[in-house]
């Protein structure tokens, strides 16, 4: 702030104070107040228009960029993966050649699309965002004028108050007469200033509103057509996508499910994917302090289960046990994947999910049932939720109760931790 | 960290230092080249899948950002028109179109996008922490094994007074070896399986993404095109000829000419 500005602020301070606390007289011009309110609206709307149009511009660009990047990433997935990048012989053709081809085609289309859209988007930038920011500048200038008017009004009120005070003095001295004269002149000046700005704003704000509407209409129409063009180009290009790799006749989800098959289930059979969750103890395993009252129950359940349970895989491999007796005790403390791995090692194959013992099933045409001991909430897709007391049909029993079991409940099937239930 | 975990950690750190220092390399390091190749392949997969996850999320976010700004623009324009009274109904119909686009098109595509693109990819990426944990454990076990072996070697070279020390160390080495080999074998057989499964696992999502894009573009266009009927027939012509821009410029300069706009 300049020195002059500072001085003015100081001189006006008492009146500002009075105005704020509604002391003394404050001029109110209803017409102006309404115009000012409308101006404020206009100001925020202009700001919004400006911000959003640039956001829009960025979003469209971002969308296309992500499309391209997605295609690049999936191409990386499709490409054969070698552990020795520098050795060309190590590339086995296990990737997805057709997929890579499709990726390239797709990327080409999207890139072309981006190039085609660039002038269109540039036009939004130039013809919508540009004018909108210019308008913003003007609005800022107008805002300054309204501020000036507010100052002049303050001066006007201030000088009038001074004048009034002197006039109301019962007997005036010579000094008072002088002051009166000066005050009159100042009040006159302030009145003129104030009225000039007040009238100017009252006169021109409505004009501004009208012009703004005139301004917005063609702007909006341009924007609309640009948008329409963008969508048209997008539509046209994407429609003409002709990549034999994609089966476009089917619905999104149907095609997905068809193509997907049971690959997820197959993948999730890999034990390394459950290393943490299944491995050395899940947090909140029942039977620990938290369920002190139930721990006895859990204990009993354990002993019962060990009678009924099919023998765990490692003891089935008698030789495996005898050769690595210490290893077994160690690994059992480390968690079940080791057991599975031990079994797998002995058999030399990936561990098949332990099958229920045939003798257990003999006589049961249906699956055995189990009662839930605790509430269990699904923690991943494919988990089975239940609450304590539910009767679950066990379809696949884990090797031990620390494994994930499979079962059905109320028509839903899924996995759940074996130690959360008790076999009936 | 628990006490035993801490002790293990310190021991392993010592082994690592012993492997690196000394001209004689106090502790011999086991190298399993085949396994290392598989681990590198897995790292490549991890990187690619993580990127895929990022991009699939980014796409959805920018799609949403786009419709959200469209909505706010529509609101603003409607507010401008609002003062003049919606005579031609353009702003209303535009607002309606944009709102429909947001409410119906995006919402109806949101579900399929989640189930066919976002969730499968996220789930695939969620496997990595477990695998990484497994790899870490394997490396730790390998360190244990190496350190145990070197201890045995030392005892063989320089027999201790206590004769029971050697067999005990041998047993411990055996034990460490088993633990290590179990994990190594598991990773070695399953990592390639996972890598082989990546294409069938993630491929359907790509097709789904392309289809969702197609559907979005088609619907967005048809919704937007409907607004056109509310505009005068010559508006399009005016737009194409650049008259609209001239008009914008003209009004803008008129506004600029207002004395309140200049710093008086």
UniProtKB/TrEMBL annotation, chain A:
Keywords assigned by UniProt, alphabetized: Coiled coil, Phosphoprotein, SH3 domain
Region feature (Disordered): 274-364
Alphabetized Gene3D superfamilies for the sequence: Arfaptin homology (AH) domain/BAR domain, SH3 Domains
A GO CC term attached to the entry: actin cortical patch
Any single biological process term in GO: endocytosis
SMART domains listed in its UniProt record: BAR, SH3
Sequence ranges assigned to domain BAR in this UniProt record: 17-254
The organism's place on the tree of life at top rank: Eukaryota
Database matches in InterPro entries: AH/BAR_dom_sf (IPR027267), BAR_dom (IPR004148), BIN3/RVS161-like (IPR046982), SH3-like_dom_sf (IPR036028), SH3_domain (IPR001452)
Single GO term (MF): lipid binding
SH3 domain boundaries: 365-424
Pfam families according to UniProt: BAR, SH3_9
Compositional bias ranges of the Low complexity kind: 340-349
Name under which the protein is recorded: Uncharacterized protein
Record organism: Gomphillus americanus
Lineage: Eukaryota, Fungi, Dikarya, Ascomycota, Pezizomycotina
TrEMBL record, chain B:
Name of the gene: HOB3
Keyword annotations: Cytoplasm, Cytoskeleton
Gene Ontology biological-process annotations: actin cortical patch localization; actin filament organization; endocytosis; plasma membrane tubulation
PROSITE patterns noted in UniProt: BAR (PS51021)
Protein name in the entry: BAR adaptor protein Hob3
Chief location: cytoplasm
SMART domains, sorted: BAR
Domain of life: Eukaryota
Localization terms from the record: Cytoplasm, Cytoskeleton
GO cellular component: actin cortical patch; mating projection tip; medial cortex; Rvs161p-Rvs167p complex
Domain BAR: 20-240
InterPro entries xrefs: AH/BAR_dom_sf, BAR_dom, BIN3/RVS161-like, Rvs161/Hob3_BAR
Molecular-function annotations in GO: lipid binding
A Pfam family reported for this protein in Swiss-Prot or TrEMBL: BAR
Organism, scientific name: Gomphillus americanus
């Amino acid at each position: 702030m300049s020195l002059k500005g500072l001085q003015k602020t100081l001189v006006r301070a008492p009146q500002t104070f009075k105005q704020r606390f509604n002391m003394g007289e404050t001029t109110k011009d209803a017409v102006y107040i309404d115009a000012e309110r409308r101006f404020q609206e206009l100001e925020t709307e202009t700001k919004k228009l400006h911000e959003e149009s640039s956001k829009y511009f960025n979003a469209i660009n971002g969308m296309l960029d992500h499309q391209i990047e997605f295609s690049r990433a999936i191409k990386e997935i499709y490409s054969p993966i070698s552990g020795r990048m520098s050795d060309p012989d190590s590339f086995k053709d296990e990737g997805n050649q057709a997929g890579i081809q499709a990726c390239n085609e797709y990327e080409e289309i999207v890139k072309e699309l981006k190039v085609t859209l660039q002038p269109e988007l540039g036009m939004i930038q130039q013809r919508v965002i540009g004018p909108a920011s210019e308008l913003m500048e003007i609005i800022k200038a107008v805002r300054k004028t309204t501020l000036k008017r507010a100052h002049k009004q303050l001066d006007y009120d201030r000088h009038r108050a001074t004048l009034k005070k002197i006039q109301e003095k019962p007997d005036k001295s010579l000094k008072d007469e002088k002051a009166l004269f000066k005050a009159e002149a100042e009040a006159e000046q302030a009145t003129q200033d104030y009225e000039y700005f007040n009238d100017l704003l009252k006169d021109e704000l409505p004009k501004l509103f009208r012009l703004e509407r005139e301004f917005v209409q063609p702007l909006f129409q341009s924007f609309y057509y640009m948008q329409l063009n963008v969508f048209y180009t997008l539509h046209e290009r994407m429609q003409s996508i002709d990549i034999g790799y994609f089966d476009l006749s089917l619905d999104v989800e149907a095609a997905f499910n068809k193509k997907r098959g049971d690959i997820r289930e197959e993948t999730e059979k890999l034990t390394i994917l459950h290393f943490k969750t299944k491995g050395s103890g899940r947090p909140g395993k029942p039977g620990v302090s938290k369920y002190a009252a139930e721990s006895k129950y859990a204990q009993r359940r354990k002993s019962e289960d060990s009678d009924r349970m099919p023998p765990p895989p490692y003891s089935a491999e008698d030789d495996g046990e005898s050769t690595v007796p210490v290893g077994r005790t160690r690994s059992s403390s480390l968690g079940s994947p080791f057991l599975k791995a031990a079994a797998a090692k002995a058999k030399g194959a990936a561990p098949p999910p332990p099958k229920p013992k045939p003798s257990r099933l003999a006589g049961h045409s249906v699956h055995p049932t189990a009662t839930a001991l605790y509430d269990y909430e699904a923690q991943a897709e494919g988990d089975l939720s239940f609450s304590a007391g539910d009767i679950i049909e066990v379809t696949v029993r884990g090797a031990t109760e620390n494994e994930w079991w499979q079962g059905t409940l109320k028509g839903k099937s899924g996995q759940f931790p074996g130690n959360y239930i008790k076999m009936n | 960290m628990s006490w035993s975990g801490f002790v293990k950690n310190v021991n392993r750190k010592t082994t690592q230092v012993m492997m690196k220092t000394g001209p004689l390399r106090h502790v011999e390091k086991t190298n399993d080249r085949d396994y290392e190749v598989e681990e590198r392949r897995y790292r490549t997969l991890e990187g690619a899948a993580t990127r895929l996850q990022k991009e699939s999320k980014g796409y959805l976010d920018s799609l949403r950002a786009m419709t959200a700004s469209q909505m706010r623009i529509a609101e603003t324009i409607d507010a401008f028109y609002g003062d003049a009274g919606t005579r031609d109904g353009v702003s209303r119909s535009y607002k309606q179109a944009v709102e429909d686009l947001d409410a119906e098109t995006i919402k109806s595509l949101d579900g399929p996008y989640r189930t066919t693109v976002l969730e499968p990819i996220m789930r695939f990426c969620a496997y990595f922490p477990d695998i990484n944990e497994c790899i870490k454990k394997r490396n730790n076990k390998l360190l244990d094994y190496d350190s145990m072996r070197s201890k045995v070697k030392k005892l063989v070279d320089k027999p201790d007074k206590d004769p029971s020390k050697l067999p005990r160390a041998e047993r411990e080495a055996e034990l460490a070896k088993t633990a290590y080999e179990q994990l190594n074998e598991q990773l070695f057989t399953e990592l390639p399986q996972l890598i082989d499964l990546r294409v069938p696992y993630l491929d359907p999502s790509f097709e789904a993404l392309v289809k969702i894009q197609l559907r979005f573009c088609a619907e967005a266009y048809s919704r937007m095109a409907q607004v056109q009927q509310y505009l005068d027939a010559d508006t399009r012509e005016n737009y194409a000829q650049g008259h609209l821009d001239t008009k914008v410029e003209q009004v803008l300069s008129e506004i600029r000419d207002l004395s309140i706009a200049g710093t008086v």
